[in-house]
Amino acid sequence: MGRWVSQKHGHKVLEQLETYIDAYKNEGVVRGACEDYRAGATIDVENEKADLVLSIETTILITQKEGRYVEVPTLLLYSAANLGTRYNMKEIWEKFVNNKVTAHGVGDGAGHFINEERPEECTEVLLEWLKTI
């Protein structure tokens, strides 16, 4: 778990560890988490491939093949220091959302557990976003 948290804010996650331990005592929580990771490594990849088509002309154009889009306003929060350094998260999600994507990289070195590591920032961004929908 140490790899998933930031050096600066990781203590906040560790303070909440008992909450995670208690939740994972529930068989349904364990099953749900396992199914999420299983799908992310298998069927989600296949579904994403079905949804995207690459056509090469002067540039690579990625379009929806199956026409399956998220049809609601979407707020995307992610770690600016983690995923945000490797991917253009907004650009990726805009391929799957047929509506406006509001993307925000949670800062100050937050790791995987952005809600626990930067609760004030996440709450502020969420509240401001809710005013727009």
Please name the fourth-level CATH homologous superfamily: Alpha/Beta hydrolase fold, catalytic domain
Strand content: 15-25%
Q: Summarize model confidence as the mean pLDDT.
A: 82
Spatial order of the strands forming the largest sheet: 1-2
**Order of helical and strand elements:** HHHHEEEHHEHH
Straight-line N-to-C gap: 35 Å
What's the CATH topology label? Rossmann fold
Supply the number of helical segments: 8
Overall structural class, as computed from helix and strand content, comes to alpha+beta
Low-confidence stretches: 55-61
Write the CATH architecture name.
3-Layer(aba) Sandwich
Q: How would you describe this structure to a colleague?
A:
The protein has helices spanning 10-15, 17-23, 27-41, 43-51, 83-86, 89-94, 114-117, 119-130; strands at 52-56, 60-64, 74-79, 101-106. With 133 residues, it is an alpha+beta fold. The chain has one domain: Alpha/Beta hydrolase fold, catalytic domain (Rossmann fold). The strands form 2 sheets. The protein has a two-stranded antiparallel sheet with strand order 1-2. The chain has a two-stranded parallel sheet with strand order 3-4. The radius of gyration is 17 Å and the shape is globular.
Element layout with pairings:
Elements (H helix, E strand, L loop, with lengths): L9 H6 L1 H7 L3 H15 L1 H9 E5 L3 E5 L9 E6 L3 H4 L2 H6 L6 E6 L7 H4 L1 H12 L3
Parallel strand pairs: 3-4
Antiparallel strand pairs: 1-2
